[in-house]
Amino acid sequence: MKDIELYRQLLGIKSPWTVDHVSLNMEEVAVYVYLVEAPDSTWCCPTCGKSASLYDHREERIWRHLDSCQFHTYLVAAVPRVNCTTHGVQTADVPWSVPHSRFTLLFERFAIDVLLATQVQAKTAGLLGLTSSQVHDLMERAVLRGLKRRDEDEVIDHLTLDEKSFQHGHQYMTVLGDANRDRVLDVCETRTKDATSALLTETLTVAQRNGVRSITMDMWEAFMNAAQTIMTQADIIHDRFHTAQYLNAAVDKTRRTEHKTLLQQDCSTLKNSKYLWLKGPDNFTDTQRERFADLRDQDLATAKVWSFKETFRSFFACKTVDDGHLFFTQWYEDAVSLGNTHLTKVADMLKRHLPGLLAYLRHHRTNAMAESLNSRIQHIKACAHGFRRFSSYRIAILFFLGKLALYPQESS
Fold first, then answer.
1. Stated pTM of the model
2. Helix, coil or strand: residue 80
3. Torsion-angle region of residue 71: left (phi > 0), alpha (psi -120 to 50) or beta?
4. Do the bridges between strand 171-178 and strand 235-237 make them parallel or antiparallel, or are there none, so unpaired?
5. Tens digit of pLDDT for each residue in 142-153?
6. Dihedral of CA 100/103/104/106: which sign?
7. How would you list the strands of the sheet with 214-216, edge to edge?
């Protein structure tokens, strides 16, 4: 009787349920607490909450609870089925768990805390004595209820769209982020226009889409076309990070072409200089600074393209859109007149996307948050040693980076 009263107090079991008996299994190092309902209990329909009559009982079910005295603790009960005049026969709710879960509310909450602390599903499974499948199911339920609890009236005025590699080869997924709250709103498996359009429409309500003022992204046409179709009022912003990538590529391609030409003339001037052109001068060692100064002063095509790349930094410091437009017009004419194929190609691309570059000067938004989220997504992938299925990858991303209300509802 003492053990029954002990677990009745520990579990906080309330009417109509009570502890019937407790069984200790030393081989399993486990405690099984058997619960029963009072004979004269009244029931409600789990769908509408109206009074319903007892129909029968389901087979006994087992729920994992928090450990007690280093013993795994399980609750065991045969849950009643009730007959509702409106909804028919339904399985009654129990106060210690949510439907379709094999964990109690307290255990599920604890498991979520352990997952958030370790960020490694396999480690969490080992610590809690669960299987990897159980951990995944727990995460999936947490994410689904978190998505349902999102505030549909919440204002989201700035979005980010970015790509992230999913598997080897050219397999990418699209990441939709909320820049103001540093969170992932959702992801989709590809980066096509149709997939991106579906991501925007299914993740955001009509009111939220209409409230978006700007979207930061790279110059991927599918992203741009989807955003322009779904949210015509939002400005598309191309920031300095992606612009620098394209200009750096022009510098490096020029260096490689010129290096081959110089080697044919038995000149190794550009040998081992790749990272000098791509690395910021502020990070040079004294030796690197001296060598770079010597290279920059020579009549090298690489040095000239590098100079245009560095000059373009000033575009993002322009005070107004008009100033930015004037700066770009002059920079573009000078860049094209240089006659370098690689630089001209990038300059033409920047000209085609000039509205997105000028939008930066209106909003001063960057893709820094998206790049940070990408880095954290990579960490999730590394901890899991990769994901075979996209659906599992998505659940993990939203669990750790979605800033969702993950915990199950507490019993009143």
1. 0.86
2. strand
3. beta
4. unpaired
5. 999 999 999 999
6. negative
7. 183-188, 171-178, 158-167, 214-216, 235-237
